[in-house]
Every structure is written in C-alpha cells, then in structure tokens.
Design goal:
Elements (H helix, E strand, L loop, with lengths): L2 H21 L4 H22 L2 H6 L7
C-alpha cells in the first residue's frame, strides 16, 4: 500500500471518528470504548500493512 493511500485511509478514519464523537450523543464511557477499539484496530491494520506481524510471529518467550 503506497504511503499516500495509507495517509488517506488514516485521515478518513480520523474524520469519521471525529464525526461520530461530535454529532452522535452517547455516554462518555461508550465513547471511550469506541475510541479505544478504533485505535487498536488501526494499529493492528498498520502493523499488518507494514508486515510487522510476520516478524512478531517468529518472536518466542521462554525456552520453548
């Protein structure tokens, strides 16, 4: 995925999240959960695009 396209997707996700936070009335705890889920999803998507999951799968903890 080219860098420009990646930036466009991040901007669109950010604007959509801002619109939901600004114009849809909901409790602040629900907004916090929604924001957290979106941020985690974006981070995982970025890691997937940057192929970081492949290198993380080779990482082992312990003697196994």
């Amino acid at each position: 995925m080219p860098l420009i396209q990646l930036l466009e997707v991040l901007i669109v996700v950010g604007v959509l999240l801002w619109l939901v936070n600004r114009f849809i009335p909901m409790q602040s705890s629900i907004k916090s959960i929604l924001n957290g889920v979106v941020v985690i999803a974006v981070v995982f998507a970025l890691l997937n695009v940057l192929r970081a999951f492949h290198s993380l799968s080779a990482f082992r903890l312990g003697k196994g």
